[in-house]
Amino acid sequence: MKMWPATPLNPPKQNISPLIRFSRWTALTAGVIYGIYRYNYLSTREVEIQKHENEIKERYRQKMEKIKQQRTEEEMALLGKEAGVASK
């Protein structure tokens, strides 16, 4: 297997075009501004989504509590019937 000869890297050019420099800085600035705008948009949207999800979770929790309470009452009635205790 032949190894590639180690060639040293050339130093960066010192005379970069002002247009290229301006374009780079403009792209960087535009990216940062877009990132800030997008973050704010998504964070406000996420707050609304979280509110909606919390409402759904609360309704589900209440529904499960009712079901659990009904099952408990049914089970207690069955146990009372088996034990010979009069139900109310």
TrEMBL record:
GO terms for molecular function: proton transmembrane transporter activity. Residues 50-77 form a coiled coil. The chain crosses the membrane at residues 20-37. One of its GO terms (cellular component) is mitochondrial inner membrane. Keywords: Acetylation, ATP synthesis, CF(0), Coiled coil, Hydrogen ion transport, Ion transport, Membrane, Mitochondrion, Mitochondrion inner membrane, Transmembrane, Transmembrane helix, Transport. It comes from the Eukaryota. InterPro entries: ATP_synth_F0_esu_mt. Pfam families: ATP-synt_E. It is found in: Mitochondrion inner membrane. One of its GO terms (biological process) is proton motive force-driven ATP synthesis. Component of the ATP synthase complex composed at least of ATP5F1A/subunit alpha, ATP5F1B/subunit beta, ATP5MC1/subunit c (homooctomer), MT-ATP6/subunit a, MT-ATP8/subunit 8, ATP5ME/subunit e, ATP5MF/subunit f, ATP5MG/subunit g, ATP5MK/subunit k, ATP5MJ/subunit j, ATP5F1C/subunit gamma, ATP5F1D/subunit delta, ATP5F1E/subunit epsilon, ATP5PF/subunit F6, ATP5PB/subunit b, ATP5PD/subunit d, ATP5PO/subunit OSCP. Belongs to the ATPase e subunit family. Subunit e, of the mitochondrial membrane ATP synthase complex (F(1)F(0) ATP synthase or Complex V) that produces ATP from ADP in the presence of a proton gradient across the membrane which is generated by electron transport complexes of the respiratory chain. ATP synthase complex consist of a soluble F(1) head domain - the catalytic core - and a membrane F(1) domain - the membrane proton channel. These two domains are linked by a central stalk rotating inside the F(1) region and a stationary peripheral stalk. This is ATP synthase F(0) complex subunit e, mitochondrial. It comes from Biomphalaria pfeifferi (Bloodfluke planorb).
